[in-house]
Amino acid sequence: MRRRSNQSRGPSRRQLIDSERLYGDIRLSEGAVSVGLAYPNRYGVGMANLGYQTILHRLRSIPGVSAERVFQGEGEGPLKTFETQKPVGGLDAILFSVSFENDYVNLVRMLAQARIPLDREERDDRHPMIVVGGAITFLNPEPLRKYADVMLMGEGEEIVCEYIDRMRSDRGEARAERVKRAGAIAGAYVPALHRCAGEVERRSYMAMKHDPALTRILTPHSEFSDTLLMEISRGCPRRCRFCTVGSAFPKFRMLPADEAVAIAERFRAEDVAAGRRPVSKVGLVTAAFFDHIESERMAEMLFTRGFEIGASSVRVDQLTLPLLEYLRKSGLQALTIAPEAGTERLRRIIAKEATDEKIMAGVSKVAAAGFRSLRIYYMVGLPFETEDDRAGLVSEAMRIRSHFYNEINGSGRVTVSLHPFVPKPRTSFQWSAMREPKDIKKIVLEIRKQLPGIRVKCPSHKDVYLEGILARGGEELAPFLESVAAGSNWQAAARETNLPLEELIYSDRPGETAFPWEMEGKDRVDRVNWREFQRASDLNVTEVSQVHE
Hints:
Elements (H helix, E strand, L loop, with lengths): L12 H6 L2 E2 L10 E7 L3 H4 L3 H11 L4 E7 L21 E5 L5 H11 L15 E5 L16 E3 L3 H14 L5 H8 L5 E2 L27 E2 L8 E5 L1 E2 L10 H4 L4 E2 L2 H17 L7 E5 L9 H10 L3 E4 L9 H9 L4 E7 L3 H6 L6 H13 L4 E8 L6 H22 L4 E8 L16 H13 L5 E3 L3 H12 L5 H8 L4 H7 L4 H4 L22 H22 L1
Parallel strand pairs: 2-3, 2-4, 4-5, 5-6, 9-12, 12-13, 14-15, 15-16, 16-17
Antiparallel strand pairs: 1-8, 6-7, 10-11
Helix pairs in contact: 3-5, 4-16, 8-9, 12-13, 16-17
């Protein structure tokens, strides 16, 4: 899907509100209970987040609840709600929807701007309850333990409503009692009562296949401008060893194609009834588009009904020409493929099932569909990666470029994105080390020099290493997090707070490591992930031996 840039100085709040299109029962209503649903980033990022919009819809569907939006603020004044500009410190509760580790920094900043004590133990009955939910609760929410009164673990569609019901019944009770009673909700992690997130079972929402996450407020000022985003599957049936979606999230669920089309038609009918320009763009959100058994049928049905379609993820070894043509005719200019690693050897180790032959066949289909711009995504610094693997990456990228240009019979563009590996919680590579910044810089420079005529991109080291630290640390990161929130860069903050980076991210962990998000003395090793890590290690030994025979 095509992203729209969002400038830091853009439309006013009033202009943003006036440009929004609301669908269904998503309008703000008055209520005795006042909550703020906070996204710890800018308006344009938050409004493109399906989880955020889905929970907003849930909250606004509860009678007697006034649920306003809250986004990262600018300036020195107290943080206020988006709709009515109320100081958020006067609300009954602030619910943070957190999808990415790096937004922990913004959460701390928002609490400070709201004049709310950062430490949950320093709050009293005057302060709103601080509740954290979102995708990070499937991974490692422990760095936020100091700040959250309650964390709602797992998929939030049902548990957020249960929490609001509990909050209403506990009105008038002392804060300590309200915190204690929240712990009775299945899936509620209360730091004052629990030792770690591992003590609480995460919630799943199995009705998603008939009640998907949707963007019920469309705006031209989000990351995906005026696009109906629709979750067509949740989870992933595959277990790539570096990826959280297949290992940490609940089982794979799919939205039937007929229901997806009916939803898009319903949105269009609402526009017609309201005298608005009908929605024309539908973004199909999934971690595994071609693993959806009706993916091509869904795309065809939407396209033939006049919708432009975009897909958030496509596997290079599963591409079909009809689907690529639907994407191209919908206006998509560039397609991204993700071999992840540059050799079949390393792809086998990371459990990415894409052979050289399938990759080239996929590139041929991309060209045949009419694309003239191709992006190739690789990770560098992967576990068990060798110099031969990096040389293979260069060779493969050059082969793809040559093959793509030959297939399109003319000029085009090939871009290579190199992303440093970050070990993520609850994956098979959670025990693995990150390469140090100087090593990654050297690797990227060497690869860039060997790829003439190819644009090579790499994300900011600041973002990557901040993510790595927050992904593997626990509550002890609070001083570091607050230093970064106050303006220090990640390296200065690590020095100021004596953070042991060598131990935290630059070293492999032994199998018996008790991570911050696991229960101490129980279930200390995720047996499935550890078994997969050992398989990767065995594959590495076997294939290296074969190379040297």
